[in-house]
Predict the 3D structure of the following.
Amino acid sequence: MASLSYIEAINRTLHEEMARDATTFLIGEDIGIYGGVFKATRGLLQEFGPERVIDSPISESLIAGMTVGAAMVGCRPLPEIQFADFISPAFDQIVQQLARFRWRTNGTYSMPVTIRTPYGGGVGGGVFHSQSNEAWFMNVPGLVMVAPSTVRDAAGLLRAAIRSEDPVLYWEHKKLYRSIKDELPEDEEFVTAIGEAHVAREGRDVTAISFGYTHHLAMTAAERLAEDGIEVEVIDLRTLLPLDTPTIKESVAKTGKAVIVHEAPKIGGIGGEIAAVLVVGSLVLACLAVAVVGTVAWPVDGSRGGGEGGQLVQGSRRLRGGIALTFLAVAALAVPLRRRDTFDVLN
Amino acid sequence: MTEETNRRRRGKEEAPPAADTEATLAEEAPESAQEGEYETEDVAAAPAEGSKGDFLSEQRRRESLAIDVTRDFPDKYRLSGAMEGCSDEQKLELFERLVKLRLFDARMRKLFRQGRFEGTYYSQIGQEACDAVLTYQMKRDDFVGPSHRDLGAAVGKGVPLKFLTAQVYNRVDSPDGGRYTACHYWHPDYGVMQPATSIMMNWIAATGAAFGYKMLGKDNVAAAFGGDGATAHGDFHEGCNFAGVHRLPIVYVIQNNLWAESLPLHLTSALENLSDRAKAFGFPGVSIDGNDVLAVWNATRAALERARSGEGPTLIEMKTYRWFGHSDIDPADYRSDDEVEAWMAKDPLPRFSAWLEDEGLLDDETLGGVVERVEEEIETAVDFAESSAKPGAETFLSEVYAESYPGFDVRAGR
Ligand SMILES: Cc1ncc(C[n+]2csc(CCOP(=O)(O)OP(=O)(O)O)c2C)c(N)n1
Ligand SMILES: [Mg+2]
């Protein structure tokens, strides 16, 4: 079977799922005629026609909110928000309406809606095309969020999301679109179960927890540390909400140390949430070392801005790769460890 | 006043409103029992010290006028014309729905003052000719996207009152098992969507339903409701614009009651007719007297036909007025008494009942029957809600997700 890139896996899965289920439709900006700004939806207009592939006006609230009524009358909507940075006009519809509709109606209606959105830095996108803003949605029970880091999961999680009865926010990393390739399983129906993290590498000394692009940084760091005899267990979260806390806890119970790595600023971020899961209310895990590696508290977490900002960002990018390494090393070697909820790596 | 009022064939003096109307709607508990409530719960909204008695007696006066659905009104507001395509039976059935709407609303206001249910109550009294007249004409499986002041959307579509009282009381027999919000009337079996409290979410959702019908090749249509204030919201524009582009089968209704909570119309929009907004979306907009059942029937009928035949959306502005506060904790003292009185004179119900009388369709006996049936349904519905259990907090833990996830534990908080 031929190798596919991450974005090709997304595109293929959309083709397959739309062919399989005539109630699905795509709606988003520049997704039809243009095939998407990244070409994730290439060929879908030609295959499924303008009735099911809707080039929408620049109306993010509509894109997200119309899916509620469409789902109520029997559709399985697949909206796309062109860049995660532009999801804020749709925030209201996602958070207040989609995520709560099932609860509000006492289970009368579920919302089988999958919202795809490209996020993340490293592609020179600037302030409004680089954010890793998934943490904005962490405080929303009723919503599901997945963020594949591999080609297989890009397909497997997308298929699972589309077939799920819950509203899923599917974060696709821009830097991974064309930078990784893999073969998909022979079984065309394969899914990656939502809600389950993946232990991508086993180790006994320290647990590295990440997702998306930074998962690959964690894997690289683990390989380098292995040369020094430090065995890092690497968890790829895959699902951000609800977090697979059993897998995370189990791993950290074994290693006693955790480093959480993400692109977003640390403040109010997923790292802090996982640190809380690990430390709060757990006697067994009370002697942990938990570190969060994220961006400084600046309003962009992409890798390139302009001028001085750009240098700052680039500096941070270099730092970031290094930080994961340094931290994994520090966390692994620091014995005995003083209890700390988080290390603030950049202070 | 006497010269300008239209003395009815069956004038007030000769035949006062059916005695049992008043009796049934009279307070079951002395209002003094809950007068204190205005002091405790409505600190911000309470009328100035000393005016409370006046305020309550004024509320009662308006309510007793409201339940008199055949009272006199100025001749200039007399209806004329026809209801196109409406059979005599339908005219009477529609009239009964409107009476139901009015008497139910008045009854709920009293129950709220008596502290029989929590939260607040959004009275629609004065606006009965608007949404109910449209939804009455829709098919049961057509989609209705109501907002917070759309009791009529549900009553028009035929949702039995017991589900509405259960909603008001937040009891287990409401369609959401008592977990949602009072006055947010809905029912899945009648195609009435559960309104979101956030303004215009229903507008966008109804637009999506219309899209879904079109995409799935169904011949259903959707209707969305909003107020004058709501037309300033971005979602109004995003929804209408999309529906215009795709010629969706939808009827958009704006009930312009001149106020958005405390905001007067001129601070919402510089337009005189809100239907002019439709020009920006490339489909027709009409402004009509929203207290004229005939005008509303004819305009909504045409709009529904347009939608059903694939010609696309219509925006209908219905000019109307709410007699009471934004909700029942709002004394609405930002409005002048003259304005309220002027609109009460345009009460849609007496205007419609007089027209029915002129048409020879309504007489005392028929009216008596209507009122009797309606009151009986209201009383049964109130009993139903009051004897329906309050949901236990435990029951609220379910239905956060449809699927199960290994890391999710609703009690653990994550
Ligand atoms: C998005 C949003 N903003 C504000 C509110 C608070 N609010 C509820 S109703 C209302 C006024 C609505 O006025 P209008 O649209 O004219 O409807 P009416 O109440 O007159 O029927 C406001 C400000 C809300 N519910 N949702
Ligand atoms: Mg209004």
